[in-house]
Amino acid sequence: MVYKIPSLVESLVSDRAKKLIELLDDFVENVSSMPNWEKEKTDGRQVVPNVIEELKKKARKLGLWNLFLSKDYKEGAGLTNLEYGLMAEITGKCLRLAPEAINCSAPDTGNMEVFAKYGTPEQKARWLTPLLEGKIRSAFAMTEKAVASSDATNISTSIIRDGDHYIINGHKWWISGSGDPRCKVFLVMGKSDPNNKNKHRQQSIVIVPADTEGITIVRPLTIFGYDDAPEGHCEIIFKNVRVPKQNIILGEGRGFEVIQGRLGPGRIHHCMRSIGACERALDLMLLRVTDPSRKTFGRLLAEHGTIVADIARMRIEIDQARLLVLNAAHMIDKKGAKGAMKEIGMIKVIAPAVLLNVLDRSIQAHGAAGVSDDFPLAAMYAAARTLRFADGPDEVHIQQIGKLELKRAVEIGKNAEKRPRKIVSKL
Amino acid sequence: MVYKIPSLVESLVSDRAKKLIELLDDFVENVSSMPNWEKEKTDGRQVVPNVIEELKKKARKLGLWNLFLSKDYKEGAGLTNLEYGLMAEITGKCLRLAPEAINCSAPDTGNMEVFAKYGTPEQKARWLTPLLEGKIRSAFAMTEKAVASSDATNISTSIIRDGDHYIINGHKWWISGSGDPRCKVFLVMGKSDPNNKNKHRQQSIVIVPADTEGITIVRPLTIFGYDDAPEGHCEIIFKNVRVPKQNIILGEGRGFEVIQGRLGPGRIHHCMRSIGACERALDLMLLRVTDPSRKTFGRLLAEHGTIVADIARMRIEIDQARLLVLNAAHMIDKKGAKGAMKEIGMIKVIAPAVLLNVLDRSIQAHGAAGVSDDFPLAAMYAAARTLRFADGPDEVHIQQIGKLELKRAVEIGKNAEKRPRKIVSKL
Amino acid sequence: MVYKIPSLVESLVSDRAKKLIELLDDFVENVSSMPNWEKEKTDGRQVVPNVIEELKKKARKLGLWNLFLSKDYKEGAGLTNLEYGLMAEITGKCLRLAPEAINCSAPDTGNMEVFAKYGTPEQKARWLTPLLEGKIRSAFAMTEKAVASSDATNISTSIIRDGDHYIINGHKWWISGSGDPRCKVFLVMGKSDPNNKNKHRQQSIVIVPADTEGITIVRPLTIFGYDDAPEGHCEIIFKNVRVPKQNIILGEGRGFEVIQGRLGPGRIHHCMRSIGACERALDLMLLRVTDPSRKTFGRLLAEHGTIVADIARMRIEIDQARLLVLNAAHMIDKKGAKGAMKEIGMIKVIAPAVLLNVLDRSIQAHGAAGVSDDFPLAAMYAAARTLRFADGPDEVHIQQIGKLELKRAVEIGKNAEKRPRKIVSKL
Amino acid sequence: MVYKIPSLVESLVSDRAKKLIELLDDFVENVSSMPNWEKEKTDGRQVVPNVIEELKKKARKLGLWNLFLSKDYKEGAGLTNLEYGLMAEITGKCLRLAPEAINCSAPDTGNMEVFAKYGTPEQKARWLTPLLEGKIRSAFAMTEKAVASSDATNISTSIIRDGDHYIINGHKWWISGSGDPRCKVFLVMGKSDPNNKNKHRQQSIVIVPADTEGITIVRPLTIFGYDDAPEGHCEIIFKNVRVPKQNIILGEGRGFEVIQGRLGPGRIHHCMRSIGACERALDLMLLRVTDPSRKTFGRLLAEHGTIVADIARMRIEIDQARLLVLNAAHMIDKKGAKGAMKEIGMIKVIAPAVLLNVLDRSIQAHGAAGVSDDFPLAAMYAAARTLRFADGPDEVHIQQIGKLELKRAVEIGKNAEKRPRKIVSKL
Hints:
4 copies of one chain form a homotetramer.
Chain A: H1 15-31, E1 41-42, E2 45-46, H2 52-61, H3 81-91, H4 98-101, H5 108-118, H6 121-132, E3 137-141, E4 158-162, E5 165-176, E6 183-191, E7 203-209, E8 215-221, E9 233-244, H7 255-289, H8 307-339, H9 341-366, H10 368-371, H11 377-386, H12 394-417, H13 421-425
Parallel strand pairs in A: 3-6
Antiparallel strand pairs in A: 1-2, 4-5, 5-9, 6-7, 8-9
């Protein structure tokens, strides 16, 4: 096994999880050696890698399947968030294939959680089952073009009840996964009650089959120059899209409740995959700076300037971030996502920041090759950059963390008052 | 006029240059309003913008032509490096069209300098004249795939004398501009005397017409997913490419001399364009954060968190970098590129760093739109990122600057010795 | 001459100023070689250095006297702010002696400006003349203990008219220079009209002779562990302190006007001295890292790790900051302090930041010796640290700069509107 | 209880340790409320706080005594390094009194470890016993003035065998604790075999009673103006100091072995105290920025600019650093100090860096008061600054960490070779 469980959490990992980690580590190490693992292209367009179905079969047989669904769900693999977090790190070393191969790739994971947590038996039968079996894929349609949707109360797609149906009109974009031909269903967020005084009760989420009439996929958006085909991040217009009223999730006005329930574990997944991606980027840098064919002025790159110091700082940053994410995962395991709000906010900010920094330094060590697609670093950078605003920009999370800290001032002040003033100011 | 000449250098700018700056500023402000200024695409491929020839005519008529060639060249516009620097900043606000429109775009500028400085009358007639007239384009083939070419002595393409010809064999990549159908000539660097004990006398540069037999353009490389067509940055194989011996520049073994003569002013151009790009990115950010349609939680983006502070810091960083670049330009004007070595090294490091930082913050303010091609920021970021290793990575320049500083220790020590020891250590 | 005038501004410096710069440079280089130049101590207390009067005589004879008072004042040396800025840099290399030796040390400089600009003939005769002659020193009493005086409208010392007198009551602290036995006069800011609806018309400034009854100097405050005796930064209580009504500066309610008039050039002085201090700290570091007696693991410190890169980055930071300060000085020369508001704000933030960074890196290169008083670095650091809130904390200036930038959005938007929308978003 | 055990390590903390943590937390919270807890001063000199003996009695009665000595020592409290780490954090909130009150203050802790680990029964009886009882204090004399002692092989104090004695000659400085009147013994490092070809076998450590003839305490050194009396950091000359040969620790030539055995746990202590100091500095900042009396421009400091964001980032930095230190502590518990070398190096670098940053931001929020001794922040900053070179400068540790990482390249390369080349470069 290449992967090492961090010393500090080893006692929190069950023997079964350790076994799965070992299997997964081998699986991921071998994934890349498949003869034709690359996404094939026809006329320069990326498509679903042809090895993916084979990999999924293999993974499922090994028990590496739906690992993300925690103990809370009977459909899940019975792992803690911390345990799956370690596995998510491993998949982060091979982002293109590994998460999907074990049926743990976003946005399907979050959507499966929604169905598992809030779905009716009918909704589960129709959508959760094929998703859990890896037969279809899905998308979550929230972000809108015309408004600042990092404040979700701005979302203005309308979801209007019309007899036994809802009629949906709106203009979404950045709907990840919606370009995949296998994407069969959208969860669409919009306003069913735009005049409700409680701004957090105006929104609902409805299930919209991807082949419903009135849906136009305008274009895939690019991230830097990547279109991330086939999944893509599409701009989509919903025009008089009609779905039966049974397609509502949880009930009208409960959209915020649903999205909040969806966020906690998903952030652990993202962040731990980011840690895995950090390790991969650092590995590549280590190979590069010790590669005799890249000598300059008679010395290995590693023997020049600040390279060694850069590597040391990367190691510190990565190890710190990993522990912080694992701590958040453990908090979710013990207190639920709500009780771990501050911890989740912190990792949401720091994991992408560390990853971008590590990627940037690794790119620099690779020179021009680093920004090309001969190495995976540039594509990883592009993807990582979006994590600084996906699910809310850094700025929003930083403010929330800061405000939670500020609240502590009251208690500190109270403790201080018990003592003479000098306690506060002295020592 | 939108552009403001920095107060500190105003007295160094001639009236004629001020007039040109005004013309150029208007020209660039209006460039974008042309009805079909975008690069057109056929089947998703970028081509030469169809407006470019029209723009070139217009610019030339206005006297905005070949401004980069300084007083040192009779073919030039007679401007100082500082004066042209200010103009380069203006073109940096519209990188796609403006530099080419005034026939001041890389790598042609550097190549024209080479021809003007070192070319024989025949070489000038055949290549410099059409370049100066904007009729053809050119490329500089130096970087190689198999070696770390940031140490140029590693370059291993062979240039072998065979009677009245040179025969060239080698594998280059990142040859910017070589994908442009109008690119008619390469300057190719390679080893004509690989066993010369003086490592800096092994190299020569030869002129290779683009249509010479034996040249294979393998592929355009991508930069964060962008292929930068039509110019592109191509991988090229030279196989038994044969050119007449008259095609050598300056003489055998003088390759290093040529590339060093080519670098100084070119860095001023790059860096000042970077400053212009900074201003553009900041302008876009100012518009975004004050845009009422992007309000979140009831407030403009500018009214949240650290946005105002970020903007202030960007302003400081940009203004500092601009002055440093102008100082370097002025040093070249007064002492030549050699006398300004430290100054040129410093701007080579700092200008791209500031630009990347400004772009990153501006992208963040734009959210997901910032990484897409609905705004120019992501493409600018990709291009700017390459500046941290083009013409030598940051690390090489930082070491050179540091070592030049270290040399000062001797003199400081001597001055200190004249005084009692406490001078050194006290106050 | 050791000092080099930056290339970019050389043409803005008159021959007379160049001559003075040369004299001053020699003077400062030699100051330290005086046999007993150290501040002597009696029982561990610092006192006025006994060499200071001798130095003042020497300097005055050389014409190095009151150089700070710009062309605007008939009492001044007739230099531009830019020219004096260069001289201030030189004095920054020997902060303990040089500024005072040429009668250009704070807070006297600012106070002399106030007297010169706003003083009545009587006020000038009594206070400005001896200050200009270096016979007395002075203090500016603004900051208060009980309120956040970075918002000067919070200042609550009362200045109440009582017949032909003003009666002053208040509790000040951080009154720099007030501990010096030669400090003979305070300019005291307080509220003469606390109920004025215009918050910026409530304040007045009065002249208070240091020996007036009712003044208690409570204690000198320390900065880190330094008490900066003899000048000190004292806590002072004013209790029923009575001065004649003629002691008001400019008139009742005009306190803000006075302090604003006092700030611009003073910031140039501070910032350029900071640049000089940077150079001194870097010089010490260069000596240290090339000192053969400090070899570790067989190599000079300069040959280890990131030292060379650190030095290179320091050089870039210092050179950038210097140019920015000189640009601000030139703006004041051309447009007055008001017209240079943004520029002055920027240098107020960046110069201390660069100095602290340079000092910190130089300290690190010195190891434990760096934090001791065997080298001047730690004391310089302590003093420099206060510059981040003296005359308003970084945060206030950053906000002001940012808001001035934000105002540009309107104009940018207007220019953009003239053109099709794509101009804004596309290259 | 105010202190919260981090979720991630809770299961690693025994019930007994949890009880001790609770007791210690209460003890430290109350320490400061003692009527005259301040270090008293006579004529401005600090002395041993008069409350200290009383506190020690109290602590010992509570079982809060010698907690630092881990399970490995029969004299110890039987705690793991991780458990004591949590307690060290708590004492970091009251650095002046708490560590000494529980007999866990440096450099005594390290010296006690040396005696416990390597001492003969006689050495233990004479020195370890009174140290464990808190009756005497001690110092470790390693650093020298004339050489760069961050490379310990440079140390040049001579320890020469003369019959039944060793004779010691050398010039030490920065000998912390040596100014304390209760300091009764020095461990002195020097060269007993300066010509040994193995550079790490030249050194020995001998026990030198503080009252031995030939020892001159030259002066206390200052740290940013603080002399840290009474302990102090003294310059000491050893001139023909003679001690019996039984005073050698472990044997001749084994100095390096001793100092290496001494370092691991001590770094956990330092780093966790730094985390506690961070929390204290943040607490003070939270109080300050929410203090209604510090309003500026009508708003709390917390409502201005970047304060909230600064606080959020501090929280992230502190929490990350704490987990990294605890991970290192746990590694020592499981694999010993040698097995945790990389982890120990990482915390040695990051904990002081975070602390300095947190202190600096907290100081800034306090304005001028922050650098004075009305708050503890400036003194904490001065002390924290020394941690960046105490026990080796950052630079040395960074290089070691980087080189350990570089070694991984071989294994990564081997794994990569098993797979087609594209594995290395793709995904």
